[in-house]
UniProtKB/TrEMBL annotation:
PROSITE patterns: LDLRA_2 (PS50068). InterPro entries: LDL_receptor-like_sf (IPR036055), LDrepeatLR_classA_rpt (IPR002172), LRAD2/Mig-13-like (IPR042333), Sperma_CUB_dom_sf (IPR035914). SMART domains: LDLa. This is Low-density lipoprotein receptor-related protein 12. It comes from Stegodyphus mimosarum (African social velvet spider).
Length: 290
C-alpha cells in the first residue's frame, strides 16, 4: 500500500513537472508603474508564452488609458488568443470600455469589447515578425454596471521555410512554437493544431515531455520510499537495543501460594515414634508367681 501511494505521488509530480508553466501578468500592476509597459517574450522555452489579464480580483478598473507592448525575439511574431472578455455595458458600434490591438497582420488595429467566454480560445490574432501592442481604455466611473475583465494568451512564434527545430512544434499553419506548449489546453498555434487529438500534436497519447516527467516522478517516489524504509529500520534497531538494556523484572508469587487450598493437596508426613541408634529393647518377661 505504501509503495502504491508513493508511486502515485511520483506520477503526479512527474505530470505536473512536464506541463508548461504560464506566467500571469496583470494590467493593473503594469499600468500603475509606467505609461507604456513592455512584456518581453522568449523563444523555445517556457518564457515564450504568458497570460495577460486585467486584474486579480477587481471587476472594473476605472479611468484606464494604458499601453502594453508585447515584444517577441528578433524575427518572431506574436499570437494572441482570447480566453475571456467581459466589457460592460456594450453599445454597438461604439464601446465605452475596450482593448485595442495594433500591429496585426490582417488589420492595422482591432477593437475588442462585449462578452465572450471560450475555453477553446478559437478567436486569435497574430503579428508577422514584430511586436503586438495593446491599448486598455475604460471610463472614469465607479458604477457597478461597468465591467472591464479579459484574459489573453500570448505566444511567440517563428515561421520558417523549412522544418522547425527539434525543440519546436510545427503547427498546421506552418508556425513554429515551443514544443512544451502542446496539449496544455491553450491555443498557442492560433489554429488549435497544438491541441488536436491527432496529427503532429497527438494529444490523446503521452508526449515526450510527459513521459520524461513521469520517469522523473517515479524516481523521486522511489527515493522517498527508500528513505522511509531506512528510517524505519533505524527506529526498529533503537527499540531493540532499549529492550535488551532493561533491568530484570521481579515476578511476585501468586496470591494462592501457600494458601489452605494449596496445602490441602499436599499430604503431611505421619508422625513416627522416636527411635534410637541402639535398636529397641525386648519386652520384659512377666513377673514370677510362686
Amino acid at each position: 500500500m505504501l509503495v502504491l501511494k508513493y508511486s502515485l505521488l511520483g506520477l503526479l509530480l512527474g505530470v505536473l513537472c512536464s506541463e508548461a508553466s504560464y506566467e500571469e501578468i496583470f494590467l493593473e500592476d503594469l499600468c500603475n508603474q509606467e505609461e507604456v509597459a513592455v512584456l518581453n517574450l522568449g523563444s523555445g522555452n517556457a518564457n515564450s508564452s504568458g497570460i495577460i489579464a486585467a486584474s486579480r480580483n477587481r471587476t472594473f478598473l476605472e479611468g484606464q488609458n494604458c499601453t502594453v507592448l508585447i515584444q517577441p525575439p528578433l524575427g518572431y511574431g506574436v499570437i494572441l488568443s482570447v480566453r475571456h472578455l467581459d466589457f460592460r455595458p456594450f453599445y454597438s458600434p461604439r464601446c465605452l470600455n475596450f482593448v485595442k490591438i495594433y500591429g496585426l497582420h490582417e488589420n492595422d488595429e482591432i477593437c475588442l469589447c462585449g462578452y465572450s467566454d471560450d475555453a477553446t480560445e478559437y478567436q486569435s490574432y497574430h503579428t508577422d515578425g514584430k511586436a503586438l501592442q495593446l491599448n486598455f481604455i475604460t471610463v472614469n466611473k465607479t458604477e457597478t454596471r461597468y465591467h472591464s475583465n479579459f484574459i489573453f494568451v500570448v505566444t511567440s512564434y517563428v515561421k520558417l521555410h523549412y522544418m522547425c527545430e527539434v525543440k519546436m512544434f510545427q503547427c498546421e499553419n506552418s508556425r513554429c512554437i515551443w514544443k512544451g506548449l502542446t496539449c496544455d489546453g491553450h491555443n498557442n498555434c492560433g489554429d488549435q493544431s497544438d491541441e488536436f487529438p491527432h496529427g503532429m500534436a497527438n494529444c490523446r497519447s503521452l508526449n515526450p515531455g510527459t513521459i520524461a516527467g513521469i520517469v522523473a516522478g517515479s524516481v523521486i517516489g522511489s527515493l522517498v520510499l527508500i528513505c522511509i524504509s531506512l528510517a524505519c529500520c533505524r527506529c526498529s534497531r533503537c527499540k531493540k537495543s532499549q529492550t535488551t538494556e532493561r533491568e530484570p523484572v521481579l515476578i511476585e508469587p501468586a496470591s494462592s501460594y501457600g494458601s489452605s487450598t494449596a496445602r490441602g493437596n499436599i499430604q503431611e508426613p505421619e508422625a513416627s515414634e522416636p527411635s534410637s541408634s541402639y535398636g529397641s529393647f525386648p519386652d520384659l518377661p512377666p513377673p514370677y508367681k510362686p
